[in-house]
Amino acid sequence: MAVHGERVAFYGGYGEEQDRLVHAELAETSVKQTDVGRGSRIYVQAEPFTEWGVFDLSS
Fold first, then answer.
1. Using CA atoms, how far apart are residues 39 and 18, in angstroms rounded to an integer?
2. Maximum pairwise Cα distance, the chain
3. Nearest to residue 17, comparing CAs of 46, 40, 37, 41?
4. CA distance 32 to 22
5. Which of 22, 27, 40, 43 lies 20 to 30 Å (CA to CA) from residue 16?
6. Angle 48-38-17 (CA atoms, 0-180°, nearest 5)?
């Protein structure tokens, strides 16, 4: 886990999600997921949250 201001990143998981990276924003009483990555790819969803972008870090 890494935290900077209101942004947080969680890395790891169990089973098939052992290489999962999740970016989120801290709210007053919750954590709102903003981006997800697995392996070399990061999946990003920005407002208005109608489509996903994919970035492959291996290339």
1. 9
2. 38
3. 37
4. 10
5. 27
6. 115
pTM (2 decimals)? 0.60
Q: Provide the token pair at 29.
A: 């009483």
Q: Can you tell me which residue has the tokens 């996903």? A: 52
What pLDDT, in 10s, does the model give residues 18-34?
Answer: 888 888 999 899 999 88
**Integer Cα distance of 22 and 15 in angstroms:** 16
Q: Give the model's confidence band at 59: pLDDT under 50 very low, under 70 low, under 90 confident, else very high.
A: low
Sign of the CA dihedral with 59 first, then 16, 36, and 11 last: negative
18 in Cβ contact with 10 (< 8 Å): no
